[in-house]
């Protein structure tokens, strides 16, 4: 699957409170969470994002809370994936579980600028910057995580196991 | 083969003799936990699996503690969903308002977690239980739903980092200061994907409450878990309290660590983490003149009995500054009752503080103590991210309970020595 869109850039240590503030966690409706995605960093963010756009950020993306509402908000806001230098571990796991593609690629993060057009090949991790013509390679996705994705997410994976038991 | 305590617990839960860092394992869990924010999402995912019931009614703990007593209609709907599920599933460990507490204060107190356990919770501060020598880590709601169905989950065995705390603690320095100091040294991603093992003379002398505080904040350094080898202090805490059989695991002397850090605690003063990351820790003597509008003493980090006693020691016979709101939140009903019997509430109320029923409310900007634009709060909570306690233009400073209490009296961030 090819993910394509315009880049929205953020810095290091983007935390889960910035991604979706706790004051909105009295709902778990994806559409409602999407409206407040990144609100405390940029109040207009959710209205500016177009379907397919790509979030690019520095190290330790998604640090803080275990709230799965954070990757849900990003996905529901229309972003196709997140490319970062590194991810906080609970966010990393949650993103796979809910089907938000994420990629670790420090080289791309160093060079890619806000507003540039990227394509990310979800299967190979190859990132192409159409604005500059440069190519990057994200770290490969661990095989076990690929199995979860191939099964259609963690719940489908578990369903398969339960039915075979 | 030598192993760390984290590796030994995971190996046992996976039914293996030996595991090594990086290995993917399936491990049995002893308890799974969710709250009123994370459980509703987990329940929806669990229902998609299509099983009639959870894997074990005794081992799924649901603690509504973030927005309860319900702060609005939407929160009430969420809490009701958790309540209905708990009753339908006949869960043993569902805690209603009036009997509940902040989850990470409540579960150890009720004896639901013990040494050697593997525990996952849909709350990042689940790592608190490492203080008892358990492997405990935070996960999201979908992972929680899968574990509610299977009673097991997958883990990548983490590398461990050893933190050795040598020497004797200075007055007014506790677990909170040691962990803020540590995060200040290694950064908010300093332990990313790794186990943080705390040991040394200062840890051996630390109370159980202080140990909970340290392990609670392992996640603020990106750690997968925080852990302390169980000892006599642990034994005294769990005896007569912990309901299931437990095992004391210890690290082998020649176990492998990714890093080892040694600190001399006699050089550590009370710490304050400046906005907007827990890693912005500095000694209180370097804090400068920071005026505050609010102080919060409570949360899963510092809402335990020892914390309230320390706060009362500082506040006794004193008055909260007229410009400042001080909010004190006992972590559980048992702590609430104990504090009342010890006369701590008289001290808090005479000082001009508000005392609340247990809740996570202010810590995450949920309710009870939300900050307006430009306001500053000193809090014994665990995070000071942008907008954490309210307006994106407000600020949170993290400290121990003594510093928070002293600051409430002076109206600016202060060392307890200033008011005593």
TrEMBL record, chain A:
It is an enzyme of class 4 (lyase). Keywords: Amino-acid biosynthesis, Branched-chain amino acid biosynthesis, Leucine biosynthesis, Lyase. One of its GO terms (molecular function) is 3-isopropylmalate dehydratase activity. Residues 41-100 form the Aconitase A/isopropylmalate dehydratase small subunit swivel domain. Pfam families: Aconitase_C. The keyword NAD does not apply. Its EC number is 4.2.1.33. Pathway: Amino-acid biosynthesis; L-leucine biosynthesis; L-leucine from 3-methyl-2-oxobutanoate: step 2/4. GO terms for biological process: L-leucine biosynthetic process. It catalyses: (2R,3S)-3-isopropylmalate = (2S)-2-isopropylmalate. It comes from the Bacteria. Heterodimer of LeuC and LeuD. HAMAP family: LeuD_type2. Catalyzes the isomerization between 2-isopropylmalate and 3-isopropylmalate, via the formation of 2-isopropylmaleate. PANTHER family: 3-ISOPROPYLMALATE DEHYDRATASE SMALL SUBUNIT 1, 3-ISOPROPYLMALATE DEHYDRATASE SMALL SUBUNIT 2-RELATED-RELATED. Belongs to the LeuD family. LeuD type 2 subfamily. This is 3-isopropylmalate dehydratase small subunit. It comes from Desulforamulus ruminis (strain ATCC 23193 / DSM 2154 / NCIMB 8452 / DL) (Desulfotomaculum ruminis). The lineage of its organism: Bacteria, Bacillati, Bacillota, Clostridia, Eubacteriales. The gene is leuD.
UniProtKB/TrEMBL annotation, chain B:
Keywords: 4Fe-4S, Amino-acid biosynthesis, Branched-chain amino acid biosynthesis, Iron, Iron-sulfur, Leucine biosynthesis, Lyase, Metal-binding. Residues 8-411 form the Aconitase/3-isopropylmalate dehydratase large subunit alpha/beta/alpha domain. CDD domains: IPMI. Its EC number is 4.2.1.33. PROSITE patterns: ACONITASE_1, ACONITASE_2. Signal peptide: none annotated. Binds 1 [4Fe-4S] cluster per subunit. One of its GO terms (biological process) is L-leucine biosynthetic process. Its cofactor is [4Fe-4S] cluster. GO terms for molecular function: 3-isopropylmalate dehydratase activity; 4 iron, 4 sulfur cluster binding; metal ion binding. It catalyses: (2R,3S)-3-isopropylmalate = (2S)-2-isopropylmalate. [4Fe-4S] cluster binds at residues 300, 360, 363. InterPro entries: Acnase/IPM_dHydase_lsu_aba_1/3, Acoase/IPM_deHydtase_lsu_aba, Aconitase_4Fe-4S_BS, Aconitase_4Fe-4S_dom, HAcnase/IPMdehydase_lsu_prok, Homoacnase/IPMdehydase_lsu, IPM_dehydratase_rel_enz, IPMI_cat. Pathway: Amino-acid biosynthesis; L-leucine biosynthesis; L-leucine from 3-methyl-2-oxobutanoate: step 2/4. It is an enzyme of class 4 (lyase). Catalyzes the isomerization between 2-isopropylmalate and 3-isopropylmalate, via the formation of 2-isopropylmaleate. Belongs to the aconitase/IPM isomerase family. LeuC type 2 subfamily. PANTHER family: 3-ISOPROPYLMALATE DEHYDRATASE LARGE SUBUNIT 2, HOMOACONITASE, MITOCHONDRIAL-RELATED. NCBIfam families: hacA_fam, IPMI_arch, LEU2, PRK00402.1. Heterodimer of LeuC and LeuD. This is 3-isopropylmalate dehydratase large subunit.
